[in-house]
Amino acid sequence: MRAVPGLRGPRGPTPGLLSFLCLLAAARPSLADGGDPDSPFTSLPVQEEMMEKYNNLSMESYNISLTEQSSMPVEKNITLDRPSNIQLTCQLTTSRDLNSVNVTWKKGDEILENNYLINATGNILYTQHMFTITNSKQMGSYSCFFQEEKEQRGTFNFRVPKVHGRNKPLISYVGDSTVLTCKCEGCFPLNWTWYSSNGSVQVPVGIQKNMYVKNGTYANETSLKITELLEGDGGSYWCRALFQLGESEDHIELVVLSFLVPLKPFLAIVGEVVLLVTIILLCEKYTQKKQLDSGTEKEFEQIEQLKSDDSNGIENNAPRLRKTEPAGQ
Ligand SMILES: *[C@@H]1O[C@H](CO)[C@@H](O)[C@H](O)[C@H]1NC(C)=O
Ligand SMILES: *[C@@H]1O[C@H](CO)[C@@H](O)[C@H](O)[C@H]1NC(C)=O
Ligand SMILES: *[C@@H]1O[C@H](CO)[C@@H](O)[C@H](O)[C@H]1NC(C)=O
Ligand SMILES: *[C@@H]1O[C@H](CO)[C@@H](O)[C@H](O)[C@H]1NC(C)=O
Ligand SMILES: *[C@@H]1O[C@H](CO)[C@@H](O)[C@H](O)[C@H]1NC(C)=O
Ligand SMILES: *[C@@H]1O[C@H](CO)[C@@H](O)[C@H](O)[C@H]1NC(C)=O
Ligand SMILES: *[C@@H]1O[C@H](CO)[C@@H](O)[C@H](O)[C@H]1NC(C)=O
Ligand SMILES: *[C@@H]1O[C@H](CO)[C@@H](O)[C@H](O)[C@H]1NC(C)=O
Ligand SMILES: *[C@@H]1O[C@H](CO)[C@@H](O)[C@H](O)[C@H]1NC(C)=O
């Protein structure tokens, strides 16, 4: 059995910290009640402080498992749209001496000093970082590092929900109405905003007389209705969802076709002309062919007559013989 207090923190051995935590745990047994019974961490002073301040927030737990054989860092994408208490756990299964493994946590490139716990059972090393996300600055990437012979990394990427517009352009015609729709899965944005882009500038929708933002049936969708489309209404439209922890947007391309409408009568005339010309050409070809056919027929007859007069029967037998040859083989 390996003694846990021998574990090293980010700056060499920190038995002091761990015994301090154990003491805290012993002194306040009531804290363990809120914890996960399966967790290798019995109690956390950070958690207590956090829970007191943000006890109305939900607790979200995520974990990553690493082994000494892991060749690639392990990543987890986490979607979060409201302030939450976060509990991140990384575990490393290794055959090496756990005391020689250094543990570090980073947010982006920034080292999180002593703001985490380390524990071990058997050949598994656990580390846990607990914190609260209440604003967009606290979103981003949180990574745990296990430094042994090779460095093992687990990364938790926190993002607001993705908004989905439309991949393909939406095609409409001048004078028609159209509805652009954006959605996000299982999310509850505070509100939605629509923008139309004029060149590289985003213009909020609302000034234009022919555009109305319609509330979706649910908070997870929004629609923009555009009536009496003009050619100038074509372009990019952006829908933006605002969350407590940031915003997310996507775009829809609108193509307004106009040339087909005035072209319609013209196209009809062109169609008729093409049909007439085709008929005329066909008639001409037909009569030409007839003339040609009757001409060659006469010539043929003459030649045939001459041939039958000259050598009767031989011409007809030759191809028949050739045909039977393959069958005989
Ligand atoms: C470490 O894990 C063991 C077993 O899971 C547990 O009994 C112990 O209380 C933990 N220590 C800390 C400081 O959480
Ligand atoms: C939770 O409590 C904090 C601090 O008391 C407060 O600012 C926040 O609005 C509360 N959030 C909710 C969802 O009630
Ligand atoms: C780790 O996460 C997985 C799912 O991703 C879950 O099944 C497992 O129970 C978690 N383990 C701990 C110790 O929280
Ligand atoms: C996480 O998101 C990034 C960027 O969107 C993506 O490249 C990566 O494949 C995602 N990872 C997982 C495990 O889904
Ligand atoms: C762990 O950190 C200590 C002190 O900073 C250092 O001496 C040791 O080489 C590190 N171990 C590894 C495996 O990087
Ligand atoms: C939007 O929310 C409703 C009701 O909660 C749900 O039925 C629907 O599936 C959700 N749509 C998306 C795209 O998440
Ligand atoms: C959305 O909410 C934010 C913050 O409450 C506010 O500044 C913005 O004007 C709102 N937008 C709309 C379109 O209501
Ligand atoms: C687009 O921008 C140009 C100049 O930058 C301006 O004249 C025009 O009115 C704008 N159109 C709309 C629809 O805002
Ligand atoms: C759309 O929703 C907003 C906020 O949820 C509300 O203030 C507004 O009255 C709604 N508009 C319509 C037309 O239902």
TrEMBL record:
Protein species of origin: Microcebus murinus
Keyword flag Protein transport: no
Protein name: Embigin
Keyword Transferase applies: no
Entry's transmembrane regions: 266-283
InterPro entries named among the record's database cross-references: Ig-like_dom (IPR007110), Ig-like_dom_sf (IPR036179), Ig-like_fold (IPR013783), Ig_I-set (IPR013098), Ig_sub (IPR003599)
Region of interest (Disordered), ranges: 301-329
Compartment(s) where it occurs, according to its Swiss-Prot or TrEMBL record: Cell membrane; Synapse
Residues of the Ig-like domain: 73-144, 161-241
Bias kind Basic and acidic residues: ranges: 301-310
Membrane topology: Single-pass type I membrane protein
GO BP field: axon guidance; dendrite self-avoidance; homophilic cell adhesion via plasma membrane adhesion molecules
Subunit field text: Interacts with SLC16A1, SLC16A6 and SLC16A7.
Highest taxon in the source lineage: Eukaryota
Gene Ontology, cellular component aspect: axon; plasma membrane; synapse
UniProt-listed PROSITE patterns: IG_LIKE (PS50835)
Keywords: Cell membrane, Disulfide bond, Glycoprotein, Immunoglobulin domain, Membrane, Phosphoprotein, Repeat, Signal, Synapse, Transmembrane, Transmembrane helix
Residues spanning the signal sequence: 1-32
GO molecular-function terms, A-Z: cell-cell adhesion mediator activity
Main location: membrane
